[in-house]
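Researcher: Good morning. I'm working through a list of sequences from a screen, and I'd like to move beyond sequence-only analysis. For each chain I'm collecting a predicted structure so we can compare shapes side by side. This is the next one on the list. No need for commentary yet; just the structure.
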Amino acid sequence: MKQSSAFLASVMSLAALIGATQGCGSVDPSDADSEPLGDGQLGHVEQGIMNCANPDGTNSVMAALAVSTAQELKRWQPSKDFVVFKTSGVSESQGGQQDAVKLTPTGKARCSDGKCAKVQALLDMQYEPANGKIRMGNTLLSPSALRSRLTAKLREQATCEQRPGAGGANCPVEEHTLTFQRAEKGGCDTNFFFKASGIDGKPLKAPAQLKNKLIWVDTHNPYVQFQAAGDIVSIDPTYGLNEDSTNSAGSCAAMCTKISTTNVAGQCCSCAGATKKFAKSAWNASTFLCQ
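Model: Good morning. Structure tokens for this chain:
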């Protein structure tokens, strides 16, 4: 009888833990473990119990923005490279009363193509032409939710950087350069790894501080899963939302949405268990839908 009671109690505890884990997506950055990293803190893995919640698609797209920013702008300095502005909610070029996020001229100047095609493709998902079109597995992205969350988080980033803290800025980070290394299977989907170094090429003193520049994509976003191991940092978004060197030409890609700076229209793809072909989206030349 005692053994049965103990077993029942263990099952109930496990069920409660799983329920609590599944019931949350991102967590408020005001929580205690979201404090900015200081100079003395070592790199660490932000994982714990795996939680890959993505109810409105924003978790994965925001993580993908962090990856594309590292790929094209080669740094995380969101307050310099991005800005909140007014839009109609239909396109970046059409003015209105809704808040959205776009690249600054400073940010665009850091990209080799002068427009940051990969980053722009993800930013264009904030607008209504993408509504009901961007699928990640069984999840459809909500452009309005993405606009709202991105603007709120970018403002939180700015607030953190402007608020004085012990020893200087409250969100310290060294000037840095991020260089893509590799992509491989991650905890939620695909981990993208970058080497972090100083702008002079020398090692950073505290690579783990780079987490302080990820408030704008939500440091508690389960798809961000920031890791710092020595001078290597990584992010874990949904496969297809970022380009990497592992894509193989001619293969049937298992993804519903693909960001690509080369034309993959007509290539084989698989979405929701059905084999289809990629078609270019109506709103961005670098976004392809499996349909």
